[in-house]
Structures are given as C-alpha cells and as structure tokens.
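Narrative of activities, Objective 1.

The group set out to show that a structural description can be obtained from nothing but a protein's sequence at a throughput compatible with the screening campaign. Below is one input-output pair from the validation batch, recorded exactly as produced.
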Amino acid sequence: MVPDGDNQDEWPHRLTVFTPLSVVDVGLAERLMDRYLKVLRDRLTRDELQYAVGNKPPGMEVGTEPDGSHVLRISFGGTVTMTNWDGTPEDAMSVVNNFAATAADNVSADYWVTGGWRTQTSFTEQDPDQGA
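Output recorded for this entry:
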C-alpha cells in the first residue's frame, strides 16, 4: 500500500509480489531464522529475550520485481525492512544480521518502556526500600 500523498510511480516495490521465503527455500529460511535468534541471544538480556520470543516470529518474504530483480522483506513487530536482494544466501544473511540488530535494540527499549522490568524479582529482592 502506498502512503497517502506519495506518488505511486516513485514508491519502490509497488508491483512486487511476495512469497514466504519458507515456500521458496525452506533451508535458507531456517538458517536465517537461526541467525536472527542468535543475534537476539547475543544482544539481549535473558528477560528481554523472553519478551522478544513471546512476540510473533519475524516474517521473511521474497519478491520478484517486474524486471526480474529480487526483493527481501522482513517484518517483526511494527518494523518492516524491504531491500533489493541479489538472491544469494550471503546477501540474505547480511540483511538479517542488520535487521536483527535493530530488532534487538527495539525489543530492549520496548521491554523497559512497557514495564517488563517489573517482572524481575532480582530488582525488588535487592531493593532496601522494600523492607527485609
């Protein structure tokens, strides 16, 4: 969908038809999901990771432009990334690395902003104002 006020002729990928990557290449889709989770595990605390895993897993789709070029679309939470893709696993892995790093930053911020920290008993157990 083209946002209001944007010229449809300038909107990238407006004619692209997307298919789940798992339909196109299940092995690549699994490797990318493994990489995505590894980046999250490396960048998030245990509690933040549990919060992230509680969300719907990222969607990974591949599209083909009318000119035959490929587009990779990855979505997680409210974030969607669409980028030209050369069709190689290496390029897809690079896209996923970058997307996962950004997703980890967003998850960490969301976790703290939404009060997820309130579920951590380690903070309240050590809080002298709670009384012992």
